[in-house]
Amino acid sequence: MTTTTNTTSLTPAAQATLDRLNKPSTLKGGGLGSLDGGDFIRLLTTQLTYQDPLEPTDNQDMLAQMAQFSALAATTESGATLEDIAAKLDRLIAAQEAAARPAATPAS
User: Fold this and answer.
1) Helix 37-50, helix 59-100: angle, nearest 10
2) What are the CB-based long-range contacts (under 8 Å, 24+) for 92-97?
3) Alpha-carbon span 30 to 58, nearest angstrom
4) Which of 8, 39, 54, 99 is deepest in the core (most CB within 10 A)?
5) What is the pLDDT of residue 6?
6) What are phi and psi of 33, to 5 degrees?
7) The pTM is what?
8) Sign of CA dihedral 9, 12, 13, 14
9) Nearest to 83 by CA among 33, 44, 42, 48
10) What is the Cα–Cα distance from 29 to 62, expressed in whole angstroms?
11) Helices (H) and strands (E) in the chain — how many of each?
């Protein structure tokens, strides 16, 4: 029994590109939380660079993407603000509990 393999001749550069594109992606660093405005601009300019010039992206779609990014940025900022408020409340509660404890009197 013989097995035949269907091989196509690809240049090494084309094969390297295909291998890179087919490799599963992994997030490095803090995941999606580490993305910022610079990342959005890079994604937007890359999208604009590779779009079909005969069928450009609809303005409404672009505005929707920008609105989604703005909403994400606002949510991230409000989450950080809430964490800051929670930390301050924890310190306030700890201070009130410490003040409410009776002072230890020295034994005489």
Assistant:
1) 170
2) none
3) 32
4) 39
5) 47
6) -65, -20
7) 0.41
8) positive
9) 33
10) 27
11) 3, 0
